[in-house]
Every structure is written in C-alpha cells, then in structure tokens.
C-alpha cells in the first residue's frame, strides 16, 4: 500500500459544512477500492473509481484517499467525561470498584466546574481524533457533588455540537428510594430541568435494587427520556437486577430506549441461566454495553483461582439477538488508570476477552453503538450518514491490531479531523 501521509496533509484547510464531496480511491472493508460521493452529509452513492457516475465534476471538493481504509465512524456508548484524567489527582490504591468510588468521594473537594469542563473537553478531542463522532457520557449527580458534573457535561455537549453528538446521562447517587432518597430524587428533577438526555443510576448498589429500577423507569417515562443503568457491576452471582429490569420493561410497556451497562454478574451464571436471561433481555429490547477496560481492571481481585474475566455473557446475549456493544467506560481515572480514548483499543479487548471476530468487534464500537443511541446508520454505503473515519490500514483486522495514527474523520460529510488538527 502506498504512503498515506500526503493525503492527510493535503486535507488542511478543508472544513465542509455541506454541499458535495467525493472521496476517491477509498478502501472498503471487503477489499474493494471505490469512490464515495457525499451530498449534504449523506452518502449518495459508492462506485468504482472514476466511474461515469462519480466524476470530479460532481463534487464541490474531491479528496484522493490513496487507498486509506474507510469505515463507519466510531461511537462511544459509555464514558465518564467528568472523571477523565483524574488518575494522578484521585488515586485508587486498592484497585477495585469500591476503592474507586470511595476515592472519588474523598477527593470531590478538589474538583471544580472549570476543571471538569477542561478535562472533559480534552477527552472529547482525543476521542474525536481517533474517529469518534458520537459519545454517551454519564454525569455524577449526588447530594455531595450536586449538579456540577451535569452542568459541565451539558456545556461540553453544546461546545461540540455539529462535530460530535454527545448524550448526557445523569448518574444518580444512592439512596434514591424511600424517604431517605427524597433529596436525591429532587436533585434528579433539577438535572432533568437542565436538559439531560437520559436517566441512569446504579440499582445494584441500592438497598432495594428492584425498587430503584422501577423508580428510574417511572421517572424516565414521566420525563420522556431513555434509561441507561449501571447494572450488576459485580461478580456476585446472587445479584441479577438485569432480569428484573427486563421483566419490568416488558410488564410496564416502557417504550423508550433502555440500556443496561456492565451486566457483569450474568457472566457468572450457569450457561442455562445465561440463556434464559439473555432471551428475556432480547424480548425486552434492551441493549447491553460491555466495558472490558474497567471490568478487567476492577473485577476479579477477590477471586485468586481461577480469576474470572469480569465481563458480561457476551456470547449468550448475542446468540439471543441482543445488541451487545462495547465501550471504554473510564479514561485514566480511579476506575481505569490507562486507556487511549480509542475505540480500536476497546475492539481489541473484545477480541481477546470476549472472543469476538475483528468485524464483529468493529461493529460493536461503531454501527452497533449508533443503534443503541438511536442514531441514523452511518458508513460508506448509499443512504447512510457520512460519519466516516479513514485510516492508513489494509484491513479492519490490521486497523484494530495497529491502532494507526493519521486518521481522517468526517462528521456528516464535514472534515472534523485531518490527522493533525481539530477544527
């Protein structure tokens, strides 16, 4: 394959807000070389290079990609932008989940609105440079912390509007049920009034997980918002709130999007039980987010022999027809001290830890995530939104293995990263 450095450098100065663009000599995942014609942010047609239907005269701008691999842009289904880059500020000596939670609470006084916005902004820019054009982020909302994270991430959401689609899911503290949860519920209502996109929480950490799950669904239904719950982030097989969530969605007729993130304890169930719950989750239309970065780091520390992987039952869920996607969760903070903000890193972990094949792993960090977020399909095919990433790679497998730099990122046909400079 020829060098791609010239293609990336040649893009300096292009920032398309609309109109037409032709991407010449693009390599698709099936190995074919094509020209991609984009009109007003949507892929109009794809054809052989220099075909009669894809001439330079059709486009306002023509870019020769010189054989770069073009994929659907990546999407991050589960981030915590308000915690990004806190690894040095908030250490987690124990390395487990409760250690991370307690570390955050002990260091809340060090966090400010401006600092949270700056770190979140830096994280989004890093993700965007890696090809991410859609992010769902959770925002801490606790009595001690107040609405600072919600306010910060809403500000960042608006800052990147038109370049990165950002959804803010309010992450409720606990307790949230009963008389003792009244203040937390009032805080949630304040967050809704600020304009969050989804409602979330951690039912498995509440004293009454089922009641908390029911309450979140009821509050979300009243607000007209979808739900994304941290679910069963534990290796304890006796904890299985996912099953109740699925029953509740089916019984109540909850019609808004529902996502269950983590679902770790499902991976500790016998195979028959995994299938039963997976079929129920599928019937309820619940999407599941696997989070290999943090769950491989945080889970399993109390299981010396054999040490479980700490991931959900990906194979059983996929076999039942559940849309299982993958996210990075935390980025260099007490919950995950590493991470590069690159979905290709997440895809690689899903290949190694969950036994997905490269094409499956790539879908789990791109088009599958857009389905979870209820966004229009993207990718290099006619009729899809032109959220694209071009990489100097010869195949999807090679891209995941190498994680190459010099990526070119398009958001609705507009170049938002050219391998060197964000726009």
Describe what this molecule looks like in 3D.
The protein is an alpha/beta fold and 423 residues long. It has 14 helices and 16 strands. It has an eight-stranded parallel β-sheet with strand order 6-7-8-9-10-11-12-13. Strands 3-2-1-4 form a four-stranded mixed β-sheet, with no helix packed on it.
Quick recap:
With 423 residues, the chain is α/β, with parallel strands linked by helices. The protein is built from 14 helices and 16 strands. It has an eight-stranded parallel sheet with strand order 6-7-8-9-10-11-12-13. A four-stranded mixed sheet has the order 3-2-1-4, with no helix packed on it.
Short descriptors:
single chain, 423 residues, alpha/beta, 8-stranded parallel beta sheet, 4-stranded mixed beta sheet, 16 strands, globular, disordered N terminus
Q: What amount of the residues lies in strands?
A: 15-25%
Total of helices: 14
Helix/strand order, N-terminal first: HEEEEEEHHEHEHEHEHEHEHHEHHHEHEE
The order of strands across the largest sheet is 6-7-8-9-10-11-12-13
Measured as a percent range, the helix fraction is: 25-40%
Low-confidence spans: pLDDT under 50, at least 5 residues?
1-17
Secondary structure category = alpha/beta
Radius of gyration using CA atoms only: 22 Å
How would a crystallographer describe the biggest sheet? 8 strands, parallel
- Overall mean pLDDT score? 92
Question: What shape does the CA trace take?
Answer: globular
Query: How far apart, in Å, are the first and last alpha carbons?
Result: 28 Å
